Protein: MFS family permease
Amino acid sequence: MRKSLIPLLIAVLVVFSAQQLLTPVLAPLSRELTLTETQLGLVITVAATALTIASPLWGHALHKIGLRLVLLSGLGLTTVGLTGFAAVAALGLDDTMPPPLVFALMLITRSILFGAGVAALPVAALAVAGTATTTEAERTRATGLVGAAQAASMVLGPAGGGALAAVSLMLPLYLAPVLCLLLSLWVLAAVRPPAASAPATHNGPGLRPWDARLWPLLVIGFFLYLSLGLVQVIIGFLVADRLHLGPQQTAGAVGIVLFAAGVVLVAVQGAAVPALGWPVLRLLRVGTPIAIAAFALLSLSQSLWLIATAFALLALGLGLAIPGFTAAATMVAEPSRQGSISGLVNATLGATFIVGPLLGTALYEIGPAIPILTALGAVTTALVLAWMSPAARRAQAATVAVPPGTPAEP
Structure:
């Protein structure tokens, strides 16, 4: 399992680190470009829409064109998108381009091109994790490692972005596409079948999201991710307004908050979840109450260390709950359909970021505490479903649907 996942984990880590480089600078950059909070929310929401639409398509493409071509195609789109985003931002800061045109081109580059491209990475990683495992414990461990790679990007990306932003807000924007280009060259040279082959082809009808075994789990995942999406996009505004900081100070403070959350996520998903070996339902039922406590603390936090503590606590809660959701969902499908199920799982994440950032920024303009309280309600709903849903209870006793003799490696 580890051998087949390593190239995918590296790819996920690098491309999401490139994305997270931009996180500390998005809020201050948007204000320098005279964009509103709602416009920034739209940039992220349109990116999530592109990711949601593209994810099932990438899952289908895995069975048709193979893992290597999916990775290269996705990375090509991310590189072009981030390069265009950096160019548009530079022209906007120089007053060469008017704000309405800056906003429109950001939607094309940072949202559509990058959003569609970045979807390929987690879909491919989850599909390989699904075909490389046969038991609930193995599946939870594998999906936890994919989550840990994304969490590690939250450590490396915001820390690097915050440090670079102390010199110039544009430096993270210049570095991000370079990282994606270098990763593309590495994939071209190093990732070849059969070292990391695509999941087996299945000629029957694909798994549908409204399948009774699957949709309640997707709803739980939707609310978990929605709670994060509601607060992640407003963190820059929250830090700036509660602590009364300038643009570069805000970027540095956001980097500290996300660094703390990322460290906890890496520890939980990369070490704690595999070591605990808990069933998927226990992960959900223990993680969601911790996330509820985190949102309650965040709603009251008025200092940087309390905000950082709240996000670290949130990382602990979601770091337990999300691998439980992901493993439970992938166990619904046999290995030949892991591409399809991975596309649906990643589309669920994308769907929450269609709603979350736009809703979060709009609610923030009404009242700074409202998006946090809405996130608390979302994760509480996930907890209720984890206790009450028959599909969640069936996941407790589920076994991976693989034919006898199916090998552990794809």
